[in-house]
Amino acid sequence: MRKTIHYSLLTGLAVAIIGLPLISGRFAEKASAEQSVVSMSNGAYSSSIQAPVIKPSWSFPVIPIDRNQYSEQAVAVAENGKVFAIDSNHRLVALEGSSGRKLWQYGDQLTPVLIHSNGTIYGMAQNGSIYAVTESGKKVWTTSLGFTKAGNIYRIGSTVYITQSEQTAAVDAASGKLKWKISEDKDSYHGLNNLMETDGVLIRNYNVQGSLTFEQINAYDAKTGKKLWDSFRTSFPLAVKDGVVYSLANTVMIDDDPVNRKVTIAQYDLKTGESKGDRQYRWTEAENKDGTFQSGGIYGSAFLHGKDLYVFQGKALASYDFWNYKADSKPARKWSQEGYEQLFPLSSIYEGRMFYQDFRTGGLIAMKLASGQFIHYDYGDNPTVQADVFGKGVYVGQSDGVFHGYDLMTLKPVFTVNTGSRSFGPTLKSGGMIFIQSGNRLLAVKLPASLK
Questions:
Q1: pTM, two decimal places
Q2: CATH of segment(s) 63-163
Q3: Which residues, given as ranges, of the chain have pLDDT below 70?
Q4: Which residues contact residue 431 at a Cβ distance below 8 angstroms, ignoring those fewer than 6 apart?
């Protein structure tokens, strides 16, 4: 499986300005032109990126990116040297990755929700049906679901799952036969984007509204869709092993001790949801003088990478051997995060780097786990809208429509592309090409040798 890291800014961008103190005194008289009431600078400056500006090898019109309607929009997918995209006429088209030559087209009135799996493209139509088409453009099947606002498609084994907020459908991948379709309470459930199947059990996460809104996981029989159990205030599983589900528990407003902090990992029986106890990873902090209590993100989240559980403890990052748990054990390793409390963990490690998003700039930040050094991939001349990591490269789309490619290891800017649009979708890669989703165009760029 190709390793990628990507994220986008969906909530807008802001630039913080830090004021300098005003200094009084006598100065020479200035010209009589009207003066501003307040004038200040934060001492920062915008530096241009010194990298060759290159032109795309080709471009192709696609439907414009609309994150309000499709939060996980996939205008295109790239596999095996080809690109499969929804064009400006809402048809599925196949393009040769190196030249942009159109190979075939299929259907009409299609939506930007599609995946590629095992040589087949699965996508959604505006009438709520799901379709399957081979890489050569041959229709395999189409099935009516009534999911006119479907958000995600997943293929797991022999089943294709489709989600639409509180609704879920399961379809046989080979025949298109509907296995089952279920719906939770639309007034309290809002579906999130994670779904997994293990040992005949399907687990999906939601935001569920009660007196307060928290994440919840629901477990279903994968064959029938029958609900087996649910757990409120529980995050999507870190792992499932030997019939036990391990999930981060949300204890906000239940255990808000500002000094004696902890992360709780709940354990459930996969089939029944019966509690198997929990684990606690503890640390202490100095109490905030302003009386605020911070939780989540860098203040108390966790994720599992291999055998290592990484726990974000505010000013520190700690790792533990997850499969050799001992109560109140000390971390195997620890890194300082002091001065970086504005970061949000992306729960991803690649090439020995832990990745974060900077709330202030939207930029991509990484920590070298070998040394604890923080490195910045947001030294562009405008805020980051979209960032993706593939292989040896980091690809950043800025709010001014300029797109940069950086060397992952050296941070050196390698190339720049002027896209002409402020909106970006996830960058795609296949072979020696990347494909930039920008506005209503798909742009193909041949990668320099250093990034292949």
A1: 0.87
A2: 2.40.10.480
A3: 1-48, 67-73, 289, 291, 378-380
A4: 81, 97, 98
